[in-house]
Write a structure and sequence with these properties.
The protein is about 50% helix and about 10% strand. It is an alpha/beta fold. It has one domain: P-loop containing nucleotide triphosphate hydrolases (Rossmann fold, 3-Layer(aba) Sandwich). Strands 2-3-1-4-5 form a 5-stranded parallel sheet, sandwiched between helices.
Length: about 230
């Protein structure tokens, strides 16, 4: 006696689009995650606020955050990281503290906002650690990305905009007392700049470099050219 395999000789049944909509559960909305990053004094914080204002004016729900910080725990970690009194801090400790602040921000703020479909604009993110802490005490990019992936639960930015400015000009824009990291030698900050540019070269789909050695309006225009298609 022959047995017929399931489906053999049967006429396939096609499902109408309407029926598919009815039987497939709706997927949760996901927001857009934008990061503005760059060296000290590059104007990223100013541009982040301008981008927030533009998107709000277009009727989008926008959340602007800073890294590290934003949460109560994150702000305390920020104070520890930037306090010049903590000059003995090792680079691995520094890197892990940044990731801890991000983990808390992802839990409290970023994750819920993105799940609600909002546009999140973050002033710095893991791209900063890949620029500032890379190489210190032998810290590798692979280690940073692996730990970062755990901290942010795999929710990487949709687009990272690097505001690029020559080191002499970026440091010259600082008109306040320098924090612990800003006090490091010019050669260190030059390496940071090169680390940012390397990230953009290695991942051109997720990074854009913006010339920050221009007027505020020109920079804002170029940022919108890159970010606008993701949020319009």
């Amino acid at each position: 006696m022959q047995t017929r395999r399931q489906g053999e000789g049967e006429t396939p049944v096609s499902l109408s689009p309407c029926l598919l909509v009815c039987i497939i559960p709706s997927m949760p909305r996901h927001g857009t995650f934008l990061v503005l990053d760059g060296t000290e004094g590059s104007g990223k914080s100013t541009q982040a606020r301008l981008l927030e204002q533009k998107l709000t004016g277009l009727g989008r729900e926008v959340l602007l955050v800073r890294d590290p910080g934003t949460t109560r725990i994150g702000e305390q970690i920020r104070n520890i990281l930037l306090d010049p009194a903590h000059g003995e801090m090792g680079m691995r400790c520094e890197m892990l503290l940044y990731m801890s602040a991000r983990a808390q921000m992802m839990k409290e703020v970023l994750g819920p906002a993105l799940d609600a479909g909002k546009v999140v604009i973050c002033d710095r993110f893991v791209s900063s650690t890949l620029a500032y802490q890379l190489g210190g005490d032998g810290v590798t990019a692979e280690e940073i990305r692996a730990i970062g992936d755990v901290a942010i639960k795999g929710r990487w930015p949709d687009l990272t905009l690097i505001l690029d400015l020559p080191v002499e000009k970026s440091l010259g824009r600082l008109k306040r007392p320098k924090d612990r990291i800003e006090q490091r030698p010019v050669a260190y900050h030059e390496q940071v700049r090169q680390n940012y540019l390397r990230q953009a070269r290695e991942n051109p789909q997720k990074y854009r470099v913006i010339d920050a050695d221009r007027g505020v309006e020109e920079i804002a225009h170029d940022i919108w050219v890159e970010a606008g298609p993701l949020v319009s």
